[in-house]
Amino acid sequence: MSDPSEAPTDFAPRAGRGVTAATRQRLEALHTRAKACLERGDHDYAHDLLTQCIAEDPGSLIYAQTFRANIAKKYAGGGKKSSMFGSLVGKTGRAAVAKAAGKGAWTEAFTAGCQALKKNPVDLPVLRELATGCGELGHTETQLFYLRWALDLDLHDVETNRLGGEATAKSKQYEQAIACWQRVLKQKPEDEEARRAISRLSVEQTLHEGGYDHELLKGEGATPDLPAIRVSDLASKESDGQPRRPATISAEPAAEESIVPPLSREELEEVVEEEPKNLTAAGQLARILHVAGESTAAIELLRRTLAASPDPESPDPESPEQAKLEEAQLQMTREHVEATQDRAKATRKPAEIKQAKQAMVLSNQAELEVFAARAKRNPASVRDQLELGLRLKRGGNHREAIKALQAARGDARREAEVQLHLGECFQHIEQFKLAASSYEAAIKASATESAHASEETHKLALYRAGVLALGLGDLDRAENRLTELAGHDFGYRDVSDRLDKIADLRKNA
Questions:
Q1: Which residue spans adopt a coiled-coil conformation according to this UniProt entry (predicted)?
Q2: Alpha helices for 292-414 (secondary structure H)
């Protein structure tokens, strides 16, 4: 009898082809063995087992996640990791993967890719080939997973960001797609493909968020390119001295008005100084500063502009321009955090680490201000209340976070998440009964949700409830919740150690 761990050589996944029940059962057994190897430190054997899983089922996100976790654990360990990774840069196994993929031999392609990562765990070209293969087979989740992995290794790699921009755009993740293309543009300021992509995706994002039918708006022909920005759109004033609102974008410029290049940085600075409430000019200038590497100045500019606008006396305090500027501010803060963390990881210099921490503080404060303003404008918006509550919690203001989170309980789809955050906030302020009640509500809500994202929420809620009960001396409840968690995932955090502790406490009682 052949070894059941041996992958069949005649299996070649095809786009749209599913995995049979028998194959799935065999792969799950291999995955379980691989996780056990990972836990005891036998990373090479775990890698081989997971290679078989991925080669036969490249669309499984769980297999890919365990595969990456095994590599991360194998190479964890300070200086040794850094020196080894550094010596591997430039060595790639991409050719073998691309050759097999070109023949449609997907099992061989994914096997070659996994074997290449065993030799060089920072092989960006191989990760890109794996992502491309997943994309061709229609496995969007794993495609994005491999691209995210590659970006974690090098956030500013041009080719990875190109692929990321294309893949996330297809998934209608416009914000992520724009961020990828912006990183391309930052590395290659003259890249016309990146400029066109950002322009196109910004329009598609607006249409998507507004619920517009893109095909109806296009009409008979293709959507024309947007014209260049007019000086008059940004800086001209009407006869009453008030800033003129930008004209509606049209396919062709008006006959009497010529198209000129966008305003320069210096010109925009003058406009912003004269008109501190000019949202359009502030947005343009902030983008220039951000691309130039002056992200802190860009974020501060947007904060000042948003604080000055809109006019508190206005009957309609929210405008599309303001919402767009808020989104730009959030995006810039996230990119700034990513960039500073990337530098800190690469250099390990105290100054870079300090800057990364400062960027996190700045990001949370900017997000807090945006969502506080939105929650104030739209007190009935469950989403805005939840986002505000999360930022307050992250900033350590647990009492105010509780108020916002309680206002966000109206969305049944996010009930488990909200209750879990409430429980953690109550526990921080030592309201243990309320915390326990919230954890139980989170367990109940996540058990009834079908979304994949609720699985982690369910496990964390069980863990929080069990640990809190153990701390309060309620051994029965602690044992029940932690045992239930162990039934889902015995390797979750320190659940097995805590169950052993409960057993010891019962023996010594």
A1: none
A2: 295-308, 320-347, 350-377, 382-394, 398-407
**CATH superfamily label, 414-509:** Tetratricopeptide repeat domain (1.25.40.10)
Q: Which amino acid is at 297?
A: A
Determine contact, residues 282/298, Cβ cutoff 8 Å: no
DSSP state of 414: G
The ranges assigned to domains in the chain are: 1-76+83-154, 414-509
Give whole-number Cα distances, 338 to 59, 143, 172, 255, 357, in Å. 28, 21, 22, 45, 11
Q: How confident is the model at residue 206 (pLDDT cuts 50, 70, 90)?
A: low
Are 1-76+83-154 and 414-509 the same fold in CATH? yes
Kindly give, in sequence order, each residue whose CB lies less than 8 Å from that of residue 75, ignoring residues fewer than 6 positions away.
81, 84, 85, 121
pLDDT of residue 334: 79
User: What residues have CB less than 8 Å from 492, skipping those under 6 apart?
Assistant: 459, 463, 485, 486
The tokens for 328 are: 């730009």
Burial of 489 from C-beta contacts in 10 A (0-12 / 13-18 / 19+): middle
Q: Which residues make Cβ contacts (< 8 Å) with residue 44, sequence separation at least 6?
A: 74, 118
pTM for the predicted model, two decimal places? 0.44
What are 341-378's pLDDT values in tens digits?
888 888 888 888 888 888 888 788 878 888 888 888 88
* DSSP 8-state secondary structure symbol assigned to residue 219: -
Confidence of residue 328 (pLDDT cuts 50, 70, 90): confident
Name the β-bridge partners of 243.
Answer: 237
- Residue 394 · residue 371 · CB < 8 Å: no
Instruction: Transcribe 239-254 into DSSP letters.
Output: TTSPBPPPPPP-SS--
Say if CB 333 and CB 327 are below 8 A apart: no
User: Is residue 276 exposed (0-12), middle (13-18) or buried (19+ Cβ within 10 Å)?
Assistant: middle
* Contact in structure between 228 and 260 (CB atoms under 8 Å): yes
Radius of gyration of the chain, Cα coordinates, nearest whole angstrom: 26
Give the residue among 66, 141, 70, 35 at the shortest CA–CA distance from 452.
Answer: 141
Which fold is adopted by the domain 1-76+83-154? Answer: 1.25.40
The answer to whether the beta carbons of residues 111 and 55 sit under 8 Å apart is: yes
Concatenate the DSSP letters of all residues of 343-372 into one string: HHHHH--HHHHHHHHHHHHHHHHHHHHHHH
Q: How far is CA 196 from the centre of its chain?
A: 23
Alpha carbon distance 114, 50 (integer Å): 9
| Residue 84: count of CB within 10 angstroms of its CB | 14
Angle at 379 between CA 378 and CA 384, to 5 degrees: 70
8 Å CB contact between 331 and 175? yes
